[in-house]
Amino acid sequence: TELGVERRFVPESCPREVRPGDFVRYHYLGAFPDGTRFDSSYDRGSTFNVFVGKGQLIAGMDKALVGMCVNERRFVRIPPKLAYGSEGVPGVIPPNAVLHFDVLLIDLWNSEDEVQVQTYFKPERCPRTVQVSDFVRYHYNGTFLDGTLFDSSHNRMRTYDTYVGIGWLIPGMDQGLLGMCVGEKRIITIPPFLAYGEEGDGKEIPGQASLVFDVVLLDLHNPKDGVVIENQLVPESCERRSQTGDFLRYHYNGTLLDGTLFDSSYSRNHTYDTYVGRGYVIAGMDEGLLGVCTGEKRRIIIPPHLGYGEEGRGNIPGSAVLVFDIHVVDFHNPSDSVSITVNYKPSNCTVLSKKGDYLKYHYNASLLDGTLLDSTHSLGKTYNIVLGSGQVVVGMDMGLQDMCVGERRTVIIPPHLGYGEHGVEGEVPGSAVLVFDIELLELVSGLPEGYMFVWNGEVSPNLFEEIDQNHDGEVLLEEFSEYIKAQVDSGKGKLAPGFDFEMIVKNMFTNQDRDGNGKVTAEEFKLKDQEAKEEHDEL
């Protein structure tokens, strides 16, 4: 004769219990005391949805549901006076029938409910939160109040990307995302009147269903955003800043806004080399690389409309904000020439280096960021060259001009006057600006341009006869070489300094051997001034 309620399962967590006026969704099995079933929501494949305490249920069920938790299971015995009484339900419930109900509560809400937000992780650093009209990228698991999963972006392996607060989402999600930080995790519980309402979505979500979204925010921007630059390290000395048209070499780590690494020049052990302001890189990077110093480290945050847009690229998802932590190694402009800074010049500086001079010097070679490449000091010997003969890069030939013995200078050489785009494998990176700290130790004056040998005195009028030692009218290479060596050893003649003796002599002999037969005759033999005069007369 009395209402009987047996709580067969009570979940550990019960944040809310049914109260009169609440709307509930529940499954049930209805049976008579002998076990004969008269009704079942399971057979219909749909929960029973109803307000509690508003007379929409039999009195016994109205009472039995009060105090239930979602996922709680109750066995309810309802006497006839609290069920269908002496009338019953013709063809279904006989008069004065005791009814047994096995009830499982699936959902619970009230018309006065609001969106509930529970943040269970929030990053320490939160420079910006979601506002109306922002575009967000987030992952979520969507469940009903009983924990049943109805959707998951994780399963699709793709974030949900949308604007917030402009009607692209259900109203409850529009509200629930506001104020989130990138990296934040929160549970958003949405009553059905702020979700899919009485009809549901026609697919997975039934009518009148409360929805629970477990959300992690991965990305956030606004279409009005520009490039954001955060300076991390700016060298004290910054004589020059990058401008449009400059060529930069820099290292970078590229991440998404949640910290996911998508690319790194460090992993390739090679800088990224590009022109700035010429459209060779994404628009945001073109902007972010302007005004940097060599050695500077900065963070460049690029919204997707200045990055890879809605489509993304490779492992960069569409509509992603990009974060580049860059370190500028060097930069130059194609119009740059060699830069020379004199650090020390002796008081007696009258003899200056010129083309053809033989120079001995020490140097330390480094990149613009200070990375040491090479040093003659570590080798314990000087570097020796003939200036202007192509034995060093063009920029070094220029940097050693007009230098006196004892002078010290710093020579900065742009790559187009150094080792170019390709560099020297394993030694000098491609497109690298080179810095040489030089000290000139010795200078041997060279010969006039075009000369490999000069006389220190008068030239013998019988020069050919003197060279032709066996007087056969022909001079062989051996004879020629012995004669030149004797003149140099005796001080009567001088060879161009810095070159191999045999190479110079063979070169001189070849010039005289005009028919190329390996012998020089008196008719072929001419001095330099004689050759010039004859050519002039012919002209």
Automatic annotation (TrEMBL):
It is an enzyme of class 5 (isomerase). PANTHER family: PEPTIDYL-PROLYL CIS-TRANS ISOMERASE FKBP9, PEPTIDYLPROLYL ISOMERASE. This is peptidylprolyl isomerase. It comes from the Eukaryota. Pfam families: EF-hand_5 (PF13202), FKBP_C (PF00254). Its EC number is 5.2.1.8. The keyword DNA damage does not apply.
